[in-house]
Amino acid sequence: MSAWINDIWRAGQVNKGGIVRRNVHTVAQNGGADVLEREVRARGFHMARIGEQYLIMCDPNGPMQIIC
Questions:
Q1: Gap between the Cα atoms of 20 and 14, Å rounded
Q2: Would you write out the chain's pLDDT as a tens digit for each of its 68 residues?
Q3: pTM (two decimals)
């Protein structure tokens, strides 16, 4: 696994069940969205793309409500 993806999982919000944001262009330069999606799914997390950001919700068991 590459360093950029490992850095995501070291973010303090991951262990707190929080949200981690990553820029779409940065993800594309460092391995791509499919790599990020695979890693998110492997952890049971959720991910959304909003504008130029990927939002990774790091609580696999928490209730989720999306309001649009």
A1: 7
A2: 688 899 999 989 999 999 999 999 999 999 999 999 999 999 999 999 999 999 999 998 888 888 88
A3: 0.89
